Known about the structure:
Two copies of one chain form a homodimer. Chain A has two domains: 2-130 and 280-289, Nucleotidyltransferase, domain 5 (2-Layer Sandwich), CATH 3.30.420.300; 161-274, Nucleotidyltransferase, domain 5, CATH 3.30.420.310. Chain A is built from nine helices and 14 strands. Chain A has helices at residues 40-53, 83-88, 121-132, 163-173, 187-198, 203-215, 224-240, 254-266, 278-289, and strands at 2-6, 11-16, 22-28, 58-62, 77-78, 91-93, 99-102, 106-109, 115-118, 136-140, 145-151, 154-161, 247-251, 270-274. The first copy, chain A, has a six-stranded mixed sheet with strand order 3-2-1-4-7-6, with helices on both faces. Chain A has a five-stranded mixed sheet with strand order 12-11-10-13-14, sandwiched between helices. Chain A has a three-stranded mixed sheet with strand order 5-8-9, with no helix packed on it. Chains A and B meet through strand 9, strand 12, helix 4, helix 6 and helix 7 of A and strand 9, strand 12, helix 4, helix 6 and helix 7 of B.
Amino acid sequence: MIGxxxxxxxxxxxxxxxxxxxxxxxxxxxxxxxxxGGHFAEELLRQTGDxxxxxxxxxxxxxxxGSRQGWQEAPYLACPAGAPEIAAALVPVPFDGADVLLVPGxxxxxxxxxxxxxxxxxxxxxxxxxxxxxEGIACLPGSHSKWARIEAGRIESFSTYLSGExxxxxxGHTILGRMMKDGPTDPAAFDRGLAxxxxxxxxxxxxxxxxxxxxxxxxxxxxxASYLSGLLIGHEVRAALPPGGxxxxxxxxxxxxxxxxxxxxxxxxxAFIHDEDAAARGLARIGKDAPWSI
Amino acid sequence: MIGxxxxxxxxxxxxxxxxxxxxxxxxxxxxxxxxxGGHFAEELLRQTGDxxxxxxxxxxxxxxxGSRQGWQEAPYLACPAGAPEIAAALVPVPFDGADVLLVPGxxxxxxxxxxxxxxxxxxxxxxxxxxxxxEGIACLPGSHSKWARIEAGRIESFSTYLSGExxxxxxGHTILGRMMKDGPTDPAAFDRGLAxxxxxxxxxxxxxxxxxxxxxxxxxxxxxASYLSGLLIGHEVRAALPPGGxxxxxxxxxxxxxxxxxxxxxxxxxAFIHDEDAAARGLARIGKDAPWSI
Lengths: 294, 294
């Protein structure tokens, strides 16, 4: 089968064996925002036509392609959900020459009635469920970081943290950014931000410290962005980690997962880093239970 | 005497009686960023020359005019400080025809060594010390909200919250702002944000709820900015209020103080709103102890 992780800004396709091994892969900056006039079928054929010509008849699409802004809306499925529940809620879209199914996103409602959503991350989570086992905590860091609780081998609930997008907005559009120079992450400054996040003060108060430490010559312009990153990730991890710590399964880009692992371990928990092919494994796993017509 | 609150973007001058009554006043959008070439003396003469010609010989300047970007730096004075300590640290600047003194800002250091600074707010605080009495809590809401603890009639310590600037950055430069329409504050939506802030979740998590409530039709585009404002102000007030509540003295613009009062009272404390002339009263009080040479 063919599995595609089709997000807002990128398109990643995997040609998978029945056992879920990646036989071939390709990626293009052809996210749904780059596709004009709703020509998703044409784009899919352009990207994977040779695999279809070579005999593939089953295509599973996950990510924002199943949103209102994508090819067709695959309504959010309520938690708890694992591969069988997700497979039972796949949405077919018309396509010549192959069976195309859309993976639904997941939703969950907080105790006080505030909804949560994910779209694309559920497939990555399914891809690591076998490694997590019956119970565990998984985190997908990013602009909108997702923290999921796994129970009985299913995604039981999850929470989103706006840390990545808040970092970009604070850095780019507040006085804090005026004292920052671009550069690679400075691990010592990142750790100082983490340590500050352990302080009982509120994030809105800690943020001002980025400026005053700079004003008083205690934080260099080359350290300031790393400190802010440590502060935000430290706050997120401290708030999202359940009491008692335990293990956190991190899924995503290697550099970002490395920073989160540092924060998780500073909080006394253990971090396991999974690679970005979790999406391919999740597509294969959902595809196994899917109601293919061909 | 003449008292001036000379900030980054505005210039407010008061002609004061020896008892501290405002005899006359004027304001202009002539903050220090608007003064080119360091011509502060010329600007001061342009704004208050008629009062000087009429016999005023003492001029006290508070605010960013005493910063490195202003006329001359008046180094930060360490807390605790009241009117006598501030008056003893005034910095003279050369000016023909009158005695001109700069009010220093204040600094304070957190338990973990992070510095705090204020410049201008110390004068407003001195202006309400008589009304607060020996002990109390005061808050000056704004881009960088200041919360000060008053002990023995002096400013004992203070903390800054970046709430106002974070609101502007989140609204203007994240996905949250895409679902917001301009308009007056919606009190019910603001209260919903306050109520959400009472929830034990972290601000970085609560922020994502602004988006999902919108996606699920539970928050209108005309309500969304007010909800975000309630969320941020609620988080700030909950974090800054000492345990046990008590009374909070609010100093600043009337509409912003009204929102903070709503948040303070939702947290079980009592709010007192002081007017913006606190700066004039503070200038008069510091001027009383100042080492004038004329």
